[in-house]
Design goal:
The structure holds three protein chains of three kinds. Chain B is built from ten helices and ten strands. By secondary structure, chain C is mainly α. Among the domains of chain C are: 120 residues, no CATH class; 64 residues. The longest helix of chain C has 32 residues. Classes of the chains: A mainly alpha, B alpha/beta, C mainly alpha.
């Protein structure tokens, strides 16, 4: 848990370091959102070893649940958030067994297909979703009377939400359930022989990671006060997977690192305009070819090697 | 060797077990009984059906016919995790360790069924979860101690030498507190010292009250520790009995290298 | 109504043929390297846009098409050399991200070269529609179907009749064993990438007169080709062809009878249904795990 407290301290200190407020309230909040998404997806991919190329769909379910229920039906934000969680969790639960029976590229295809279907529905069901133009006018989140309507307040809310996501993820991993998940990735066969109902374990983690995504989606909807299908397309799903893989697919903090790295990358690449896609793609390729186990693990190993070298030079 | 063997009530009763793969009979109606508290070895040439038998016993393949009863309870047709819950644990010929975890964590997974923490309680890290984690850890450490692995507990399983990896598999299976332990070629790939250690470990496990079903090619090891033997050949039972009886059986000798007696001798 | 159904069928088979070619490319590359190449759709886009650009420089259509195919093949070979060879044996997710990165690079390059505009190629033999029992058939559709059929037969003959084709198949069964019997696995890899890039380019050129092409046209085509390969059972070349045709026809029927906006959703719903009932595709065999 030392890493968790360190992270919490960093989150608390960040606003007081005199950094450009834009980086705190815009980039920082986006990074927090990505961390929640990546940490949730990491439970599924990194620990249970199940790829999902359609995770943006669960992000969308949370976002649209909040957007539709608060604007069209005037539900309070927290209630809409809960409804989004229930909806995303139920859909994940229904899909989990047939989808997680698949392996490798078949699983990639199925989750990708789910993501595309969800995206088509967002675009087409315009009576509900506002179609390609999206849905605006989402009211600010009201937390028992405390209205989250400023950048500073959003930073506080997102910081708390991010820490909650990290805490939950760390708890799950370091438990009987977490070990069962890791066992599924290590050897699904041996996991079954050890008495783990692997289908159930995979279903559980699929639902949990969908809940993380829907939670992030609800926050996103309120923070942007506007949602449109562009925020939930295949490219977003791929980006989430990339965060997890860059993070090394092995640790919660790796996923958080991947989320921060890609948020900063996206921010940094904006200045390249039309070159953005080319550079982004090239960077992904280079990182994955040179460090197939991810940037987080790769950098860690590199540091250890340098340290070992330095220590061995000393008499 | 063990005259009490026949008097014991059978823990495992296998009857009429049949399994074929694309027309080839891997198991052609196997019958045998494993008395409780013994080391029961299954031997036979490659392709005799030993691994298929193990896979059937732990639910990984579903035999076409027959019955597998543990203490009278039918296991055939149950998924592997239910069979594990009934008290069957195993190790693997080709290692199936969780290479993404530490040695202790591997063994803690072995004790999975002895704990009850659910997802929600785990996510919120309730006090009872912490207490159960401590218990799981203690159980794992007991199994590690029994297998002389305590010094390696914190290491990632992936960095261990081969011989120790095989031991971790045994510790993991023991952490489940099984009634029946299936050991699939535990001595394969081990050197002489390691094999001696293994023999000593297996006897210790029997002494702790666990019934052991052993598939092994290392005849000196088998003949020195097994209480009873089952010889399979082409999916059929060729012979069954105490080591002395088996070693004297001409059909068994014929099946092994066309009569080269030496391979069944105890060195 | 029957005419209408026939019309959907004709449209569907035409689109399906293109999916089949892209799917075939997926299958070839998967066979040779166990990699699903998410840049396959970008080969299609490149073939189309290159042919259009070369035609604009004054080359004749056959020459422009040929040059476009050759350049795309070179891009395929380059991709293999730069991104796939160094990453052989990497985990599935890593290779997925590498090829997605490659797709972004190709798409990004196309964006710089041709902008975000739509481009189109003139039909090979005019636009006068033919009448087929009440349904209209564009001459270009005949080109699509004819060339696809020819290529499928050629690929089949290549695998069944030639030593090179058999060597490629051997690599897909067991790369180490293929190497042991003297097959140069690297050459086989390049062959597979060159071949699939070429197939993709042909598909792109064939369909360019029917649909508009732009820098991101490869995304959906690539996904549909991947779907075709998966439905057929990945690594099964003829399965990919059947999968592509099925997908095209279903999509056209869905677009015509239900709603054109939902056609992609219908296509992927079909893929999901296939996988739920046949987890390794229609023609794929389940591989047994040995323990």
């Amino acid at each position: 848990m030392a890493g968790f407290y360190l992270f919490a301290a960093a989150v608390l200190l960040l606003p007081w370091l005199g950094i450009d407020p834009y980086f705190i309230t815009v980039v920082g909040v986006a990074a927090g959102l990505h961390i929640i998404l990546a940490v949730g997806l990491n439970l599924l991919m990194g620990y249970a070893g199940q790829i999902s190329l359609g995770h943006a769909a669960f992000f969308a379910i949370g976002a649209y649940a909040s957007a539709i229920l608060t604007t069209r039906y005037a539900w309070p934000g927290l209630l809409a958030l809960a409804a989004g969680l229930v909806l995303a969790g139920s859909i994940a639960w229904l899909l989990a067994r047939p989808i997680l029976r698949l392996h490798g590229h078949y699983l990639a295809m199925a989750t990708l297909g789910f993501g595309v279907i969800a995206h088509v529905i967002m675009v087409q069901a315009s009576g509900w979703t506002g179609g390609p133009d999206g849905l605006g006018g989402i009211p600010p989140l009201n937390l028992f009377g405390w209205v989250v309507d400023s950048d500073t307040r959003w930073y506080a809310v997102m910081a708390a939400a991010t820490l909650l996501a990290l805490w939950l993820s760390l708890n799950i991993i370091d438990s009987r359930i977490g070990r069962a998940l890791r066992a599924v990735r290590g050897s699904e066969f041996a996991a079954q022989i050890m008495g783990i109902d692997t289908a159930r374990a995979k279903t559980q983690v699929f639902v949990v990671s969908a809940l993380f995504a829907a939670f992030a989606g609800s926050l996103f909807a309120h923070q942007q006060s506007f949602v449109s299908p562009d925020s939930f397309n295949l490219a977003i799903s791929v980006e989430l997977v990339t965060m997890v893989v860059i993070g090394g697919m092995a640790s919660t903090f790796g996923a958080a690192f991947g989320a921060i790295a890609l948020t900063l990358l996206r921010e940094g690449l904006v200045v390249f305009e039309d070159y953005e896609m080319l550079i982004h793609g090239a960077l992904l390729m280079v990182v994955m070819i040179i460090l197939p186990q991810g940037l987080f693990v790769g950098i860690g190993q590199g540091l250890r090697r340098v340290l070992a070298l330095v220590l061995s030079r000393q008499p | 060797m063990n005259s009490a063997a026949d008097a014991c009530a059978p823990l495992l009763t296998v009857s009429g077990l049949e399994q074929s793969f694309g027309g080839v009979m891997a198991l052609a109606g196997i019958d045998f009984q494993v008395p409780a508290g013994l080391i029961y070895a299954v031997i036979g040439p490659n392709g005799a059906g030993k691994t298929t038998l193990f896979n059937a016993l732990c639910g990984f393949c579903q035999p076409a016919a027959g019955s597998i009863r543990l203490d009278g309870r039918e296991l055939l047709g149950q998924p592997p995790y239910r069979i594990a819950a009934a008290g069957v644990a195993r190790t693997f010929q080709n290692l199936q360790l969780f290479f993404n975890m530490s040695v202790r964590e591997n063994v803690m997974v072995g004790a999975h069924l002895r704990a009850h923490t659910g997802l929600l309680a785990a996510a919120l890290r309730l006090p009872r979860v912490r207490a159960e984690e401590d218990r799981l850890r203690a159980w794992a450490d007991d199994a590690l101690t029994l297998c002389d692995l305590s010094a390696w507990a914190e290491r990632p399983a992936a960095v261990l030498p081969y011989g120790l990896m095989k031991r971790v598999e045994i510790a993991r299976a023991l952490a489940a507190q099984p009634r029946l332990l299936l050991l699939d070629e535990p001595a394969a790939g081990l050197n002489d010292t390691e094999t001696l250690d293994l023999r000593e470990l297996i006897t210790r496990i029997r002494a702790s009250g666990v019934t052991i079903l052993l598939v092994e090619h290392h005849m000196p090891l088998v003949m020195s520790i097994a209480d009873r033997l089952l010889v399979l050949d082409y999916g059929c039972v060729l012979a069954e009995g105490s080591p002395a009886v088996i070693q004297a059986d001409p059909r068994v000798i014929a099946a092994y290298l066309g009569g080269a007696e030496s391979c069944l001798d105890v060195e | 109504m029957p005419e209408q159904l026939l019309q959907f069928l004709v449209t569907g088979v035409t689109v399906g043929a293109v999916y089949a070619l892209v799917g075939l490319g997926f299958a070839l590359i998967y066979n040779a390297s166990d990699v699903v190449n998410f840049a396959q759709g970008e080969f299609v886009m490149l073939g189309a846009l290159l042919a259009i650009a070369l035609l604009g420089t004054g080359l004749s259509l056959p020459l422009a098409a040929l040059a476009a195919i050759l350049i795309t093949v070179l891009v395929g070979l380059l991709l293999e050399r730069v991104a796939i060879e160094p990453a052989l044996g990497a985990p599935v997710v890593s290779t997925i991200i590498i090829t997605i990165g490659a797709a972004m690079v190709l798409r990004g390059a196309a964006l710089l070269l041709w902008g975000k505009d739509f481009h189109t190629l003139p039909s090979f033999s005019g636009d006068a529609p033919l009448n087929l029992g009440g349904a209209t058939l564009l001459p270009q559709s005949l080109w699509v179907l004819g060339v696809t059929a020819l290529l499928v037969l050629l690929v089949r003959a290549f695998f069944n009749r030639t030593l090179l084709g058999k060597a490629l198949l051997a690599c897909s069964c067991n790369r180490a064993a293929a190497q042991l019997v003297g097959i140069n696995v690297r050459v086989m890899l390049r062959l597979a990438y060159g071949l699939s890039a070429g197939l993709g380019a042909v598909a792109g050129i064939l369909i360019a007169p029917i649909t508009f092409s732009s820098y991101d046209a490869g995304v959906m085509l690539g996904l549909k080709g991947f779907s075709a390969a998966i439905v057929g059972g990945i690594g099964h070349p003829l399965g990919a062809v059947v999968g592509g045709l099925l997908l095209g026809v279903l999509e056209a029927l869905g677009a015509g009878l239900i709603s054109s906006g939902y056609k992609d959703a219908i296509a992927f719903l079909f893929v999901l249904m296939v996988l739920f009932f046949e987890p390794t595709g229609l023609f794929g065999a389940a591989s047994a795990e040995r323990v």
